[in-house]
Fold this protein.
Amino acid sequence: MSGKNEKGEYAGAGVDYTQIDPFKQTMIGVGQRTLTFPNARGVTVRSDILHAHGTVFMYRGLMLCQTTEGLGNKNWIAEWMYQNAGTGRTYYESIGIDTALMAVNDLIAQGAMPAIYTDEVAAGESEWFADKKRAGVLAESFYRVCEMVGMALPAGESPSLKFLVRAELPVKSAPVLSGCVTGIIFPASRLITGENLRSGDAIIGAASSGIHANGISLVIKRAMSLPDAFLTRLPNGNTLGDEALIPTTSYVNLVEALLEAEVNIHAIAPGTGSGVAKVAFDHRPYRYVITDWIPEIPPLFRFMQELGVSLHDCLTTFNWGIGYYIFVAKDEADRVIDIGRGAGYDLLQVGHVEEGRREVWFDPEGITLPPPGE
């Protein structure tokens, strides 16, 4: 069974990477032309980072990294549950965690450790901010993630954008959440550029807690076709809404433990957009062979299959239970797994890199996956 190039169900749900990626590439091209502009102030931007999940720059010998990420549509589900579940909860207990970790988990892929986070909560009307209960729960979830990863939240922005932000009904209002994280790479030798990725490398997968924050549009589309929508019970007893709102896993302690142990990390790929296909994130001609996988697929993903989402769409949309990938030399794989498990992570060698056409061969299901954006 092989993958197809036609647009999948995720595109039909409103997220079409074949349309988004050209815009991204245009912005990357413009950005590359600006890299020397800060030189007059003694700031040097590194242009040799092959897997740029963030911007690495230097000032007077200090190496910093910065990246910006948004949450996407996950808090729409929290708003739906707040309106309809009748539990008295706001369902924002983990939304700040999800929002910040979208940026933090990207930042650490360069070997940086987070230090400063600034957030933006942009609503369609001022009334959204007036709900003190929800505001308090969201703010506390930001506090929890800052405490979890060791960063400060000294400032942020809360605009009311009447003419720009509109929630899809039946949700009355839902803000757009995003933020910027700045981290430090110290010593500078911990910088991960991705240039050392090579044929023969082992691919180590770290388990996810569930959907994290990618593929949400497809989940919303499918859930809203059900009689009970997000109150539908899954086989494990959780509602669909509760399962979708399980907080994202932080991989900060994993990366920090590997760096402290001086593991030579060749590359890191956060398992975000494009699902399992994200493994083929490097643009060089490498084939990524997935030979093993976690034994228990998160129940939300299996439920999506039961609702008729094809396996191909599942694997190119959802993380399928692996939220982070570490690429190291083959002889380092066992040590990485031991260190990671010691730091509290469930790790597994899921495959290897080889020369060939850029694609992912997912052997557990006998399916070929195209690289991100294709």
Notes: Confidence is low (pLDDT under 50) at residues 1-5. The first strand starts at residue 43 and ends at 45.
